[in-house]
Amino acid sequence: MPDSTPGYAKNIVGRALRAKVDPEPKPREKKQIWEFFHSECAFCGTVLIPGSGAGHIDHLVAHSRGGSNHISNRVLACRTCDSVEKLDSDWQKFLVKKNPDKKQLARRRNRIEQWTSMNGPAPSFDSDLILREKSRLDSAIDAAVDRINRSKE
Q1: What total of structural domains would you count in the chain?
Q2: d(Cα 117, Cα 26) in Å, to the nearest integer?
């Protein structure tokens, strides 16, 4: 677990608020993702073993770019593609980079697009409301930290 800092607390608060309207996929949905992608990374084709920790349920469009947790925005990815290489980048550009072979690229892109069309669109929610509430709570955390710091003087 990361250090318990005010920044970490703000991050957790933001995630908790967002989860109220945009929850993580349920276990049965994660199983559907594994099955649809045949236990292979959607980006590079690496074979993944369920339960090994090597397979991640990755966002096609990252939260930081407005992506949701809905299963239409989630694919199976290997640890390297998810946590090291793709990160918040555009999934289509990343897919091109990972697949220089045009036939393989077309197969993987079609598979991902088939998944998204089968499961989309993601339900809409008021992201501005979430951002406003997060900002209010961030300010409350900052004020609490200031009061604590002043009490130590």
Answers
A1: 1
A2: 19
Helix 6-21 to helix 127-151 angle (10° resolution) is 150
Q: At what angle do helices 91-98 and 102-119 cross, to 10 degrees?
A: 150
Query: Are 39 and 50 a contacting pair, CB within 8 Å?
Result: yes
In a domain, 1, yes or no: no
Domain extent, residue 142, equals: 8-151
Q: Is residue 2 part of a domain?
A: no
Q: Is the pTM of this model over 0.90?
A: no
Mean pLDDT for all residues in the chain: 92
Cβ proximity of 95 and 110 under 8 Å: no
How deeply is 76 buried, as exposed, middle or buried, from its count of CB atoms within 10 A (0-12, 13-18, 19+)? buried
